[in-house]
Amino acid sequence: MNLQPEDFWSYSEWFFRDGAFLESAALKGIVLLVLAIVLGLIAGYVISSSRYGSGEGFFAVARAVRDFFRFDLPGTSLRRIFALARLSFKEALRRKVLYIVGLFVVLLLLAGWYLNPQSDDPARLYVSFVLTMTNYLVLALALFISAFSLPEDIKNKTIYTIVTKPVRATEIIAGRMLGFVGVGTMILVPMGLLSWLFVVRGLDHTHQEVVEVRELPGGGYEGETDYVQFHSHTFKLDETGEGLTNIVRGHRHVVRRSEDGTFQIGPPQGALRARIPSYGSIRFRDRSGNLQEEGIDVGNERLAGGYSSTGIARLIGVAKGNRKIEHGYVEGGSLGTAEFTFDNVTQERYPDGIPVDLSLRAYRSYKGDIETGIRGSVTMKHPDKAIESNPVAFIVDEYEVDEKILPLEIEGTDGSETRMLNVFEDLVNEKGQIMIIVRCLDRAQYLGVTKSGVYLHPADNSFGWNLTKAYGSIWLQMTMVIAFGVMFSTFLTGPVAMISTFVCVLLGFSAEQVFDTRHYIDSGIERGGGPIESMVRLLRQDAMTTQLDVDTVAAKVIKTVDAAIVYGLDAIATALPNLPKMVETAEYAASGFDIFGALLARHATATFGYVLLAFIVSYFILKSREIAA
Amino acid sequence: MSTEPNAAVADAPQTATPDSADASSSVVIETRNLSKIYRDFWGRKKVHALKSLDIEVRPGEIFGLLGPNGSGKSTTIKLILGLLFPTSGRVLVFDQDASETRKNERIGYLPEESYLYKFLTADETLDFYGRLFDLSASERRDRVSQLIEMVGLQGAKHRQLKEYSKGMTRRVGLAQALINDPDLILLDEPTTGLDPIGTREMKDLILGLRDQGKTVLLCSHQLADVQDVCDRVAILHQGELKELGRVSDLLKVQDVTEVHATGLSDAAKTEIADVIARHGGTVQSIDNPTATMEDLFLNIVRESEARPGARRVSQGSDAASANDGSSDSDGGQA
């Protein structure tokens, strides 16, 4: 999992973006609200002036706005909202939407056919399977129930008996949204429990027997477990007869030798986890030891992308350039290093050693020894002084998180002599910082690191809680889709409302591509251009990196129209919620990382903002609509 | 919640209503120059559904809107309820604009067909609508059971409405219109889909509502029903008001005299005809009156309920049945 700059932001950093307010979520929210108000007033005026004439139309709009604040908002009653929510809830239940939980169970039962039992990382496979499945099922459900209900009510005229009661438009909208969120919650909860059961039970296994046990000369034993679920472990026991197996497929077992000489192997441990990382800042040194912002680029690492964090700033052309973090490489056998500085290193946080997790990439410029892999080392260093521990060498284990615990007492040099160093006394500065240096040991081979690739690992959260947070993120997405569905259903027929909501979701998901296309157009990079240019290239079978081979006038027209389309799409995509970011939280749970509270809080705020916006828009549409027309 | 309608609208403007049964001085519904033009999506005129309608509905009366299909009755009701917006003119209900939500606290509406949620039971339906008003939980429960009893659905209150017959749905529809004990009740075609018993019950109920001091506006093309219950009617045709007034006045045929008498022999009838001729009148007909089909039907049903079982229809006794629907002599097989 490679984190992007915005993933490291705290909640307030995201909301205000100190020093770059143009990129902030707050500004985006304000602009959306203002835009909605202005467009709403204009549209309202156009409609009502066509209905009542230009002068009277103005008063009609003014009255509608006044009514909203003076009567409908204060007059909104929770009792009626709940009554209407209950109705929507009952409607969905009587339409048997709970069957979707049954469908989910069937999918889980069939999952065994698709999930590779010999996978190296079964936990990831299982967790990402259940979360993806839930996500799509629930979003599809939200889409259906929210888009069809109100148009159906209007078509069947059942709404007549509602609006002729003292029910306000605010209550109809809020009741509906609340009811559907209730239905969604009702479905998400059993799905979450089933998922948890499926993952935990699916990964559970027991090794019954041990084979090839040898007594070690210095006391203790070593041996191998039996082969269960496509794997076995080796283990080593100390003199007291206790020990651990090695880590295979993301887990290990405790092994104990009892008095009568039999071996007991415990349940799997560490397969399902939620690491809480403590990230540091990163800088590089090139082969001559000079400080660099970025590491070596071993290929086309710096593609367009990562623009979604820049909000309004990018839209109006203030923020430019690539924003995506990719791996920076360190050259082996030279002075090249990657240096991470970590804060808040204290005895209380790390009582038993400094736990460092490494997920690195290797880039080979020659084949080398293919059997052992590339070697690297980690060194602890005082951030300001030339006090440094001896390097701890390791062999790079690509595609897996390599968890190391660096000892608190380690031999090293303080510049003048070599002695035993105490981490907290000698290597941590007065600000509580420590530097971890990663080097590549093999000459002319390269190690790739990112900011999120090396971190201290002070604690783990419980997996159950992490899964709950992942489900919380799905819940937020569902709420967002319901709000959009209800909004569109206030003025469109059911199927059209559903498709509109779906298009919004889809455009949200392909926002990055739209942003990239805009970037290519802005910077004059030939990447196939906008939709029309692409179509022309497709028909003419031209490669996308060549010049567009049509005459000058035609090219000008095509490029102008394309630019207009792409800029329009860009504006819409910027306005839409960043759903892919929310879906990504599943990736945290699947990779075994704790979902940051700040991330969830950001999603919750965004969801609340969009729901509010949809609510207000829906209110005015419903209010200005002739129900019986 | 049964406030006197007069008290609630006491501050309404004074309007002279000399012939109103309630003799109140206020107006419940007032339309001023009300017009409605239906337009298509592009704003082109499709139908001129209502043209400059001016009517007043006074407290405590039963007001009927009459007219053939497409004459603008339903449009008027929808404008009054705020389901449609007028193209020009105004509607005032309890002196508030029709688009005002608060007026609905005192209104009950029975739509043309009972547009109810088919997945709810009668109980749940009434409970749901009750929750939309400011009623305490106990008040709501009392009201629901009372209304279910009133419309005679005790036996079916736990069944979903989709299993109901048309008449039963209609009754639930009526019950939901009365859930808030409204002062003004709007009934759109109240008797369609009801059997003769239901129709009679509905009519009795409407009259009962008036006796409780409520105002009723109904629209219908069942002329007989309108004649039976309405105090005043407005007749619409093609969106225009054609006639407005008290039913008794409108239907009174001024130059015809009606005499009902029993025990007259044929000779006496001839003599009466002579007397009329002597005074310069013209005898149009001297006949035995026929009962209405409704009376006949209701008598048969009442008889059957009193004495269940198959009934032997006497052959060729048309006259007897017409005169006396109950035909006691035929008896039952109880």
TrEMBL record, chain A:
Keywords carried by this UniProt record: Membrane, Transmembrane, Transmembrane helix
Signal peptide: none
Transmembrane regions listed in the UniProt entry: 25-47, 97-115, 127-150, 178-199, 481-509, 604-622
Name recorded for this polypeptide: Putative membrane protein
Organism for this UniProt entry: Rhodopirellula europaea 6C
UniProtKB/TrEMBL annotation, chain B:
Region of interest: Disordered: 1-24, 306-334
Keywords, in A-Z order: ATP-binding, Nucleotide-binding, Transport
Domain ABC transporter: 29-263
InterPro entries xrefs: AAA+_ATPase, ABC_transporter-like_ATP-bd, ABC_Transporter_VariousFunc, P-loop_NTPase
Compositional bias of kind Low complexity: 314-334
UniProt GO MF annotations: ATP binding; ATP hydrolysis activity
UniProt xrefs under PANTHER family: ABC TRANSPORTER ATP-BINDING PROTEIN ALBC-RELATED
Protein name: ABC transporter ATP-binding protein
Organism: Rhodopirellula europaea 6C
